[in-house]
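Recall the central idea of this unit: under ordinary conditions, the amino acid sequence of a chain determines the structure it adopts. In this exercise we apply that idea directly, starting from the sequence alone.
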Amino acid sequence: MKPSTAVMIVSRLLLGLTGALIVAGAQAQTEMTCPTGLPAGATCYNGKDENGAFYFIVIPANWNNMLVVHAHGGPNDFGPEKLDSAIRPAVNFQVVVREGYAWVSTSYRRGGYGVRMGAEDVDNARKVFIVAFGKPQRTIVHGQSYGGSVAAKLVEIQGENYDGAMFTVASFPAPHATIPRAPTCARSINTIATTTRGRRSRNIRCGPACRSIPG
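Accordingly, the structure predicted from this sequence is:
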């Protein structure tokens, strides 16, 4: 075996071990009663990762094997976060779960501004989901308000792990770097925003990465 090949194999093993240790540092998921508003038959879990960020997972009974990874708005006041910061967005955007998408969201490890930190916490939530439930067919990151900046940074640095990015009322610094690799699902925004106000939009066409939302 060539030395360069041996180095490559060892490097890959170390990277895999590092990833396993990151996820192993998270607390085991605790099954919980789903909050009011989420569809009947859904299963909910919560936990805390190795950085102190809470996460919340919802798997609907009609799961379409696709996952939405959520970055919440804010940021909240500086200091420790609470589980409610991970749960509340799932209720606000319950339409996503009702349409058959699994959901995972994070509280972030602390309040206060920290876009790159938030992006790491969001991606850690994705990793926790995959270890527990397997890799989805497609993974879409959704950023709300301040979480739009977090999601944009996540796609910028980890875009290969996502099939699409969706932003609602997102706040972006200007000028903002172009977002590579993962296509955006901009045409889904009106559907999400309208439905959470209690009215269902009929125009739910969207890009290839978000297609197959039932009409």
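Helices lie at 3-24, 84-92, 94-98, 115-133, 146-158, 189-196.
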